[in-house]
Amino acid sequence: MKLFGFSITKEHPKKHFAPHRNTRAYYDAAAVTDHNANVWRHARAVDINSVVGTDAEILRQRCQYESANNAQAKGIIETFAIDLIGKGPRLQVRVAIERSELTEKQQKQIDEFQRACERRFSDWSGDGDSVFDTDCDLSGTETLSEILKLGMARGLMDDGEGIFLFDRNATGRLNLGFTVIDPARIVTPMGMVDGDRGPAGGRVLQGIEQDDYGKPLNYFLLKDHPQSSLYISKGFGAYDIVPADRIRMVRRRDRAQQARGIPWLTPSLVVFADLREYILATLSAARTAAALSVLLESQSDQASGVEPAQEFEELEVPRDTAMTLPYGYTSKQLKAEHPSAQFEDFHRRMTSVGARPAMMPYNIAMLDSARHNYASGRLDHLGYWKNIETLQGWTGKTVLRWMVRNWLQEAIATPGYLPHVGLIMRLGGLEVIGVEWLWQRSKHVDPVKEAKAQTERLTNHLTTLADEWGEQGADWEAKIRQRAREKELLRELELEQEETDETEETKTGGTV
To answer: Among 4, 205, 473, 493, which one has the highest count of C-beta atoms within 10 angstroms of its own C-beta?
Structure first.
């Protein structure tokens, strides 16, 4: 039968697709069968930017809600932030010039320049020992380590992006500062749509003007958050066009040509939500069982002459009393079934799954190693700390390198801020300045074993003092100079020999 040129049949439409559903593909996973049709029913070819543009804001809202209301999710994010950033990285500056080509005076001047850069940057970041307030934050309240925790840890977990803005800081000793931007403020402005040409001639996509290869040219930055009360007062939809060299957006690309990021907590959202509901349901069942002191049950009928009680009637039971029950009634307590015997194992497994996107093992996610022995606990840490070291290197290359380059340009241009700038500029300026970041590592649970391992590494030239002190978040040169002052004072007070004698006596088994 045909209607308006279309074939009409009484048979169910699914019947026509049955041969296709059972078609066997070359790859088993590509075959469509009755068993797997629902498993991959949402799998389809999509443009990653279309998906991100549609779902990203919803995912950010849900991740922020979950981290605000779920103690486990919040704990995982904060643990990740502390382990990734800690007290903040320590800058090491090296002028890459062959020392044999320099005079002794020039070598000393370069050493002074390097130490001055490290000291000044530490003071500017607020993570050093300076008595002055931090200058790196445009608001003047956050240190560099806190800025990095907000952008590189909490931002990536909750928002999928860490967005840093560089601007002039007129109130600081150095006219330079940074701040973290909420991803919701970078949007395609009203009056434009994705695909339009921006002021630099590139294509606009989700608030970013890009060239044909996806390199950012400009960012469209709203003057305030779209949900802020100031959004309208500052001009509805008002925005600034910020050049790309003033903004550094960090996000993980899961697909090629992906412009914006997805929260790293996204795969765990359903897990954490289900686990939270399961815990609340278990707690509610346990609370109900505990709240009902006793249940009265009657086997009598109307013919017995006993007046029946009202169903679900509540009775007040005084404490420390004995009482009789009406004829035909028996009492019993509601048997508590929750938490069940499987509750702990199920909770443990679900927590491990939820922490997996952060590469975090259970004993770190929950701060619980009760079921681990020493070897298994350390083994579970290996993959996590390898991931942390990888992300620290990524942070150094994507954010810190950009920050210190802007800082060096401003520091060199500021008269009297750094010594021997003229020599450095004659040698090549920024082209000859190299930087390295020293991150604080997790402390070993056995300090004696770690100290022996450090001695072996130093003896066999497998490490340096800079690396060893850097893992403790300290400046190796400052520590060596401090140790030299201490030894000089020991010699002055004639205590060095006594210390040596005590050490030798202890080694030979004597008493101290």
So the answer is: 205
Q: What are phi and psi of 443, to 5 degrees?
A: -75, 145
Contact 457, 463 (CB under 8 A): yes
Both structure tokens of 494: 């004639």
Q: Is 470 within 8 Å of 476 (Cβ atoms)?
A: yes
Tell me the C-alpha distance between 506 and 498, whole Å: 12
Digit-coded pLDDT (tens) for 417-442: 999 999 999 999 999 999 999 898 77
pLDDT in tens, 394-415: 999 999 999 999 999 999 999 9
Distance CA 490, CA 492 (A): 5
State both tokens at 206.
């989700």
- As a whole number of angstroms, the distance between CA 411 and CA 407 comes to 6
Non-local (6+) Cβ contacts of 244 within 8 A are: 215, 216, 217, 218, 219
The candidate with the shortest Cα–Cα distance to 437, out of 121, 82, 97, 79, is: 121
Residues 152-181 as b or e (16 or more Cβ within 10 Å = b) = bbbbbbbbbbbbbbbeebeebebebbbbbb
Please state, in angstroms and rounded to a whole number, the distance separating the CA atoms of residues 161 and 166: 16
Helix axes 104-125, 401-413, angle to 10 degrees: 110
Closest CA to 437 of 490, 472, 393: 393
Single-letter amino acid code for the residue at 195: G
**Other beta carbons less than 10 A from residue 90's beta carbon:** 24
DSSP 9: -
CB atoms within 10 A of CB 50: 10
pTM above threshold 0.85: no
For each successive 10 residues of the chain (512 residues), what is the average pLDDT? 56 46 71 85 90 94 94 94 93 90 92 93 86 84 94 96 90 87 95 95 96 96 89 81 97 94 96 92 89 74 61 73 74 82 92 94 91 85 93 96 96 94 94 91 77 88 84 78 87 70 44 34
Q: Is residue 2 helix, strand or coil?
A: strand
Cβ within 8 Å of residue 24, ≥6 positions away: 31
Assign 444 to helix, strand or coil. Answer: coil
In whole angstroms, what is the distance from residue 349 CA to residue 30 CA? 30
CA dist 87 and 149 (Å) reads 10
Residue pair 129/509 in contact (Cβ under 8 Å)? The answer is no
Q: Which residue from 79, 87, 64, 82 is spatially nearest to 360, judged by alpha carbons? A: 79
Q: At what angle do helices 343-355 and 269-291 cross, to 10 degrees?
A: 160
